[in-house]
Structures are given as structure tokens and as C-alpha cells.
Amino acid sequence: MQTSRYVHHDSCKFCYRAFGLTIGTSLELPELIPAAGEPDVVIQQGRVPGALKNPKKTGVRFQAKPGNFLLTVDRVARFQVLQGNRIIVDAYPGVQAKDVRVFLLGSAFGALFHQRGMFPLHGSAVKVHEQCVVFCGASGRGKSTTAKALVNRGYALHADDICPVSVAHLGNGGTPVVFPAYPQMKLWQDALDKIGEDPSGYGRVRHVLDKYEVPAADRFNTQPLPLRKIYVLRPWEQEGINISEITGRYKFTALKNQTYRFGFLEGLGQQVSHLNHAGIIGSRVPVFSVQRPRLQFRLDELIDALEADFVP
Amino acid sequence: MNNIIWLASYPKSGNTWLRIFLTNLLQNRDVPADINQLEIISIASARGVFDHAVGIEAADLTHAEVDRLRPELYEYLSNQAAGRRFLKIHDAYTFVDGLRHQPLVSRRATRGAIYILRNPLDVALSFANHAGISVDESIERMANEDACFSSRPGHLHRQLRQRLLSWSGHVGSWIDAPDLDLYVMRYEDMHRAPMETFTAAARFAGLDAPPDRVNKALAFSAFREMQRQEQDKGFKEKPQPCPVFFRQGRIGDWQDVLDHRQVKQVIDKHGHMMRRCGYVDVNGEPCEALPPWSWAGHGPRPHQEAGAPDLAEQRGHHAHPERGEKPCVEAVRSRCGVRTHECYSGPVQS
Lengths: 312, 350
Known about the structure:
The complex is a heterodimer of chains A (312) and B (350).
Chain A: E1 14-18, E2 21-25, E3 33-34, E4 41-45, E5 57-58, E6 62-65, E7 68-73, E8 77-82, E9 86-91, H1 97-115, E10 119-128, E11 131-136, H2 143-152, E12 156-159, E13 162-166, E14 177-178, E15 184-188, H3 189-195, E16 203-204, E17 211-215, E18 225-236, E19 242-246, H4 248-257, H5 265-268, H6 271-284, E20 287-293, H7 299-309
Parallel strand pairs in A: 2-4, 4-9, 11-18, 18-20
Antiparallel strand pairs in A: 1-2, 1-3, 5-6, 6-7, 7-8, 8-9, 10-11, 10-12, 10-13, 13-14, 14-18, 15-17, 16-17, 19-20
Helix pairs in contact in A: 4-6
Chain B: E1 4-9, H1 15-27, E2 42-43, H2 47-54, H3 63-80, E3 85-89, E4 110-117, H4 120-131, H5 135-143, E5 148-149, E6 162-163, H6 167-175, E7 182-186, H7 187-192, H8 194-204, H9 211-220, H10 223-233, H11 254-257, H12 260-277, H13 311-315, H14 329-335, H15 342-345
Helix pairs in contact in B: 1-9, 4-5, 5-12, 6-12, 8-9
């Protein structure tokens, strides 16, 4: 992976550290932890084309080819992600800065991680016994809710929504490492109700959604951690909680399915290396299925079951 | 490339039965298809499919923003498909706010639709059991023009928001949809004349449907078989408040459960559409679904039989869509039934 040679200039008004990267940006990102240093990634505002020439893959609102990714969010912004070290943001006139950040720190960064050859998991992570456990699952399965409930029990937050796993040392037989993201979570109103928290003290992720920005600055882990376990949250028809290990080809499939923005890989030309990494990570990290009742389950019961499973 | 054939219905009208039948017909195996592996025909409002194809999570968008992207989503899915692709849908046939004349389902992506219809008196009962609510609540929801699935604010549902309209609003939106190649089948005819009804549906969709294959698919999707599988391994599409998904599978159960007040409420609200569809007679009284449509076009025309509702009178049996005439259900059925399947699959197979 070539290191950035991008010349730092005064368009990088702000500088942060997140995902193991120093990020220089002309856009303020108040969710992230401020830092100093030569940026690995630069985010700047500028014009972004409406389409790529000869894209390898075209989705409904994205296009990709190796080293070049384009994302359009109607009436919010267009983003271009280049070579894993540059993001250009072309915001729609009058749009709220928060709206831009949702998609910048979401899909745009997802493309960036893939361009950099990282392995981003779609999940939330907390620190347990000096290591990291990640909660994955489809949207709405309770990844953030579970992580927040654990944070409330004293565990430090490591990442919410995207867990960037570094594959840099895998070749030497090393353990995969998860970089810390930033000290904030996104939680829906009824998830906060379930946890017993009042959303009225929190800002909204977007003013048009009943989803809230929940800060976690006082319970955030700032150092990279070895990846200890992956839990995949799944509903089932029975009562109670069941935790069981996923093995064999189902494990490989789970890692594939729990990859953040898996659909971007084909266009970026990263499918093969990604699947290789999935194989290696799968050989070093256990993956568990956590089955819980589809509706009406006691969150406490789930957290108790998980804590019992957190043996060092 | 228009590859999508919609399997459309108001909830609890027999859509799952049709899906299981088609899955069995398509797979053509020696054993029944697994009711928990019907992915060959997914639902139009699946969140994961949207997220993967669009590149943005629907969870970060409003319902209106999601709706504005759904027509292009279906165009994308249609272009990705090698040939015809079935998608189940409970959304009413509506037009997207802010997109000129563009239906949610996208005209460009749509090859046709099979609309499944059931007596709303039975739907009310079935829906009450499914959702764990009272029959009165169920009747109220069916009367609500603003009814939706998966739209509770502050909550992330498994699926995207689906606008249902009222029961008669839903039916009317599909059967009167402009420029839509449509086959309408009734749950009651699926029960009473399965061979004819399902064969006609399969042929409308351009599928190879010789009698032995249809028979096998019918046997593999029989209610008892679905009940057996659910008892054995559960059914992942069953919502938690509902004890059993494949509960009764009968027609006319409403007669044992709904009281006069409830029946009158349903007919007061939906009587016009019920008359069009053969669920009330000329006197506005509920009746067994008349005429038997599944063989309309083969035997004597239903509107010629004594006591049958004059569907033909409403719009004329030979409605002309190009003159802006909306066809009655029966006319639509015979226009897009067995006779026109050659549009999709070549000469008629006998």
C-alpha cells in the first residue's frame, strides 16, 4: 500500500485520528478525535463528476473502478474516493453539514477502507479483557443496541457501525487488529427506550430521522486491539438466547456477508484479496451466532449471556 | 430490459402459497422446496437488497428518500437478472412523489404482475391472527387509506416502508394500474380449481407448465405440506405474535367468526370493490366468490350466468385501455390470461 504523498496545505483546516489513520480535512468532523500529523487521508471540498468514465461496476447510486469510487446521495452530496487517500466532497447547496457527514463517515469511508485493502466489518465493537469483540448482523438486528448496553455496563466502546480490521500483519501469522473509530454511537429512538435512556438530550443523526448521536467520549478505547471474537446477531423463533460457534464454510460466508459495503469490492477490483483475507481471519478468529427472539426479548438477558461468554 | 414479474397482493391473500408453488415449479425437484428457502423469489421491500444495490443504507434515509430510489432499484435488479425474475410485493401500486408519473415498481423494470385477491372478510380474520390483534382492529386497518407496513417512527424495521392503502384502495391500485400486463387470481379459485388457476398463472408468467409439473408443484405446495414443514422447523417469515403462520388455509372462515356488525362494516367500506371482484351479490350481500374465474375464457362467459355479478357491465368486457377505459377484473383476467401468454413464451402449449 503506497503511503500518501499528498501535499498538506491549508485546505486541511482540521486534523483527526480515527480508524488508524490521520485525517486532514477542510470539513469539520466533530465526532472524531482531534490530532496532529501528516495526513494519511485528505478530505476536501470540490467538484465531483456525475459519472466515472468506464466504471467497472455501476450500482443504483455508486460507481467503482480500481482506485476510483463515486457515490451520489440525492440532494445531499456527491463523494469521490481516490486511491485510498483522498475524498472529495461536493455538497448540495444549503444541505446540513450533519447530513453530509452521515454518508461521508458511512459509505464513502467504506470505499476508502476497501481501497486501502482493509477489512471493514459491518458491526459495533467493545473492549473486553484488553481485546476487541465485534457484534455484526443485518440492519436492525441490534448491533449498536448491544454495544451500548455493554458500554453502560462499563465496557469501553471501540467502534460503532464500521469496525475497520487491519490485515497488515496477517501474512506473518499475526492476529487481526481492529482500529478504534470515534467516540459516538448512532441509536434509534426505540433502542434508547429499550436501554432506558431519554433521547431528548441527544442530537439527531439527521434532522429528518428519529436516530440519535450518542456520545461515548468517557468510555472510549483509543488504542488498536486484537480481534478476539465476532458475534453475529440473528433472530430466531424460540424463547431465550443461544450462542453457538459458526464453523466451516458457513464461517467464511458469515465473514463475507458481514463485510461493510461488500458490494463495492467488485468494482474496486478487491474481491479476490478480500476473500483471501476472509479466509485468513476466519482461521484465526472464532465467529459465533447469537440467536435471540425476534421481538420482545429482554436486553438484560442477552447481555448476561454475552458476558458469560466473554471468557478470556 | 423488463424482467420483473410482480407477485402482488394485500397481506394474507395467498401470496406465500403462490410463491411456494412457483418455487416448486421452478426448482422442479423430487422433494418439496424448503419453505425457509424461498429466496428465489424475494420481497420488493427487503432492506438488504436495497442497501447492497444502492450503496447507501436505507436506514440513513427517510421513507420518501427511499421511495424515490425504489424504481431505479427495480430497474437495476431487472438489468441484473438473466431472464424473468419474480418479486413478491405488498405495496399498493402507487406513484412516487416527486418523480413524474413513475410508479414505485418502475414501468421500465416491469414485465407484468400476478395479483392475488381474497375475500376481505377472510382477510380481516387472517390478518387479525397474523398480527395478534382483534378483528375490529384488523377491519379498521383495512379501511385506513394511510395504512402502511414497517413505518413506525423511531424504529428500524426489517423491511422498507410499504404503503398499503385500504383493502379496496390496494386492489383498485393494481387492477386499474395503467399499462400493466396483469393476471388476477383469486384465493378462492386457487382452492376450488387449483389446476386451472395455477396453470394459467404459470403460463401468464411464461413458464413451462405441463400438467404433470403443475400437479407436482401443487402437491409440494399443498397446505398440509406447508403445515408439516412449519411444525418441523418453523417458518422464518412468521411474525412473533402469530402462533402459527399456516393456520387454517380455508375459505369462508369469516362466517364462523365475524358478527353482523363487523360484516356490515367491511361491506360498507369495501362493497364496491367486493362487487367488482365477486364477493358480494347484486343485493350487496356477501356470497361465495362468483363467478368461477379460473376457467373463464374456456367455458360460458361468467356474466352470462344467472345471478353472477355483471362485471362486464361496469366497463365492458372488451375494454380499450388506449381509450383510457379501465378494464373490469374479469376482462383483465381474460385479456392477460391463457390467451396472451404467447407474448412471453411463444406458441400456446396444450
